[in-house]
Design brief:
Elements: E1 7-12, H1 15-25, E2 29-30, E3 41-47, E4 50-56, E5 75-80, H2 83-92, E6 97-99, E7 106-110, E8 116-121
Parallel strand pairs: 1-4, 5-8
Antiparallel strand pairs: 2-3, 3-4, 6-7, 7-8
Length: 122
């Protein structure tokens, strides 16, 4: 029986660029307790028992056309307390986003490697 999601993994071509997005724009904190792996990457704690793992590995999808609206692509959805704060950070960083087409208080954006992310106000 599934108890929850332990972590979501995203491939990145440039860890420094990805870290700037995840740390400076999204405000995530690096988990320094994770052991080194055979490739570059980082872990972020979201909540106790939930993490994001960035792996610096070649993407098998390089050059693949992605829909503009991340809701029409595979994505991971994150609950946030205040959607306005996410919007403010994205706009300050010049990162494009689209609002949920369902009318929910949610938006979609892409990280520097074109991974789709959803943020839902809860």
């Amino acid at each position: 029986m599934i108890l929850g999601i332990h972590h979501a993994t995203f491939l990145t071509a440039d860890v420094v660029r990805a870290r700037a997005f995840y740390e400076e724009v999204l405000g995530l904190r690096l988990d320094t307790q994770r052991p080194a792996m055979s490739f570059d990457g980082v872990w972020y704690d979201i909540t106790p028992g939930q993490q994001i793992h960035l792996m610096c590995l070649p993407s098998p999808e390089t050059g693949l056309a992605r829909p503009t609206h991340g809701g029409r692509d595979r994505h991971v959805a994150f609950a946030v307390a205040e959607l306005g704060a996410v919007i403010e950070n994205l706009e300050k960083a010049g990162i494009a986003y689209t609002l949920s087409q369902s009318g929910r208080r949610a938006l979609f954006c892409r990280d520097p490697d074109q991974n789709a992310l959803e943020f839902i106000e809860s």
